[in-house]
Amino acid sequence: MGERDFLAAISKIKVPMLILDQKWHRLFALGGKPDAVKTLETQESDLLKREAELKKEIKDLKRVKENLMSSVMSNMEGTSDLVSKKLDDDKRLLEECKERIAAAEDELKDIPAQITETNKELMIASMDYCYDKLRTNSSEAEEITNWIKDVRVQLKKNVIRKRNREINNKEIYSYMHDVFGMEVLNLFDMQNGDFYIGIADDKAEEGAEKKSASEEVAEITNVDLEDVDLDAVAKESKEDELQTEDVAIDELTESSESQ
């Protein structure tokens, strides 16, 4: 829709008095009102106050006018100087009262249109703010969604890596048992402190049914397996294991050479 068509359509809409609507104020509860909205809000509030003042003023002036007219009518037959002076004063005040009523009514006549126009400008400014906020929130929500997805993928990878380490730990200990025997292992176990062989979570879940890596992942993330390059994860785990083996071989070689 073009700008002209849009403004033409807006001009036909009957907008409720926004500053009197508590839900309108709630639109700005989080971010606060922008300066453009504050300015128009103040302008509309001043117009409403002025409208109420003029209505009260006209009402009061009309009451005074009635009293003056009654006074003039009652003094029309008087002949004394005092009565004549009172009559002249009342006529003068009556004319001033009529002028003030006319001026107030002329000003009041234009105020409703000014309020309507200001209210529509306030609506447009409010909508500009709201749609800008909607776009900002949508953009930030999309960024957060992508971040969550990436974290879930990384989490799945790390769960798989953790399981690989635990399985490797169990295999190492089993080979150590076969090579050196339980008696030797017991001595080294006491020397090397507290550690756990096997699946680490088993220690905290004694008596509970063991979970596979895929079941564990399902509990903490809903990322599909297709989202994770399992071959890459396995390759990374293998590279870590080979690096550990290389370090161990280097240490044995240095130890042999020193002897």
Structural write-up:
The structure is a single chain. With 259 residues, the protein is mainly α. It folds into two domains: 14-146, Orthogonal Bundle (Helix Hairpins), CATH 1.10.287; 150-249, no CATH class. The protein contains eight helices and no strands. It has helices at residues 3-11, 22-26, 35-74, 81-180, 182-191, 200-204, 213-220, 230-258.
Which terms would index this structure?
2 domains; Helix Hairpins; rod-shaped; 0% strand; 259 residues; mainly alpha; 80% helix
Secondary structure: helix percent: over 70%
**How many structural domains does the protein architecture include?**
2
End-to-end span in angstroms?
88 Å
N-to-C series of helices and strands: HHHHHHHH
Uncertain segments are none
CATH architecture of the largest domain: Orthogonal Bundle
Judging from the principal axes of the Cα atoms, what is the shape?
rod-shaped
Number of helices: 8
What is the CATH first-level class name of the largest domain? Mainly Alpha
Total strand count, please? 0
Please name the CATH topology of the largest domain: Helix Hairpins
Largest sheet: none
Mean pLDDT: 79
Any idea what the radius of gyration is?
A: 44 Å
